[in-house]
Amino acid sequence: MHKQVTSSLLRRSFLLSRGSTNGRTPSSLRGAGASLLTTTTIIPLQQPQPQHQPYTHQHVQTRHYSSHSPMGLPPTTPRKKVTLSKLQSMYKKGEKITMITAHDFPSAHVAEHAGMDMVLVGDSLAMVALGMEDTSEVLVEEMLLHCRSVARATTRAFTVGDMPMGSYEISPQQALSTAIRFIKEGRMSAVKLEGGAEMAPTIRAITTAGIPVLAHIGLTPQRQNALGGFRVQGKSKESAKRLLRDALAVQEAGAFAMVVEAVPQEVASFITGLLKVPTIGIGAGNGTSGQVLVQADMTGNFPPGRFLPKFVKKYGDVWGEALKAIESYRDEVKGGSYPAEEHTYPMPKEEVEAFVGDVRRLMSANASETEGEKDA
Ligand code: KIV
């Protein structure tokens, strides 16, 4: 008796060819159907040889046939790892420190290739990568997941993980235990927290435990509700003095550097000149020791019409390029021009013919058998 070739039979035979039944012919497939399997699918598939140089990486296996090939190759010109003392020496020499955000492996990988000194897993993640309304929504666990993926791509840059709102304000002990998670689980080199003089005991507790802290003063987006929105800070004499007090307090508490956000250039430059640690400006003009920008903003990875703060310079058009590419793909799939011959895996002609011939023969045998059964 011949078994009818059904889609489930073909599926089982496919599975069998991939070894998922441990090479044994299932009892349900024994009989004439199994002869098809023996002649066509139990024979190991001839794997085509790769046409290209294998993509290798010292830590990851090569996969010639998978759509999920590893992203990570370190930059070809090896550079020395950026450490705290390297950052201090850059600062002392007056060399500007470059920092950018990265929220996942690819964005960290490209930052690393571009030679960024510091990579920040900012809580801007909430808005630009997770689509949240503001940064207060993002959880420690979510930050840690993204920190780990960034850490895998950064062999040279000094990495900083941003402690999210609610994970450090309650007490220095709470802050320290969160900071430890960012180092142990997030694989970061340092943590960042927002706040000035009032956070000094917290910064002290974390740095005393041996964890470097990047402070963040001026506009502190996690406190947007208290600040009355995203407002430029230090615009009046009193407010500028408060900012200076904050800068001195976080420095005194052991911060190795501080982000200074949305502050008039003159104030940021003047404060920078009074400190012994670097300032990393964002919307604070050109007189700080370094600069930071959110990667999605500066690469233009957002749709037209999105609001951009005044200080952001758009250096690229990643959105435009991605949109063009995806639209072309859509058109080519709809029009049938993709995939072309060069995107397919070759199979020896005789194998194709033998396969098609066997299946056709079995199908016609099945058809005659079914006719016979009907007539009987
Ligand atoms: O979350 C972030 O990306 C930041 C930078 C803007 C400094 O805090």
Automatic annotation (TrEMBL):
Pathway(s) per entry: Cofactor biosynthesis; (R)-pantothenate biosynthesis; (R)-pantoate from 3-methyl-2-oxobutanoate: step 1/2
SUPFAM superfamilies in UniProt: Phosphoenolpyruvate/pyruvate domain
Reactions accelerated catalytically: (6R)-5,10-methylene-5,6,7,8-tetrahydrofolate + 3-methyl-2-oxobutanoate + H2O = 2-dehydropantoate + (6S)-5,6,7,8-tetrahydrofolate
EC number assigned by the record: 2.1.2.11
UniProt keyword Transferase present: yes
Biological process terms in GO annotation: pantothenate biosynthetic process
Enzyme superclass (EC): transferase
Family: Belongs to the PanB family.
Name the record gives this protein: 3-methyl-2-oxobutanoate hydroxymethyltransferase
Organism: Sordaria macrospora (strain ATCC MYA-333 / DSM 997 / K(L3346) / K-hell)
Lineage, opening ranks: Eukaryota, Fungi, Dikarya, Ascomycota, Pezizomycotina
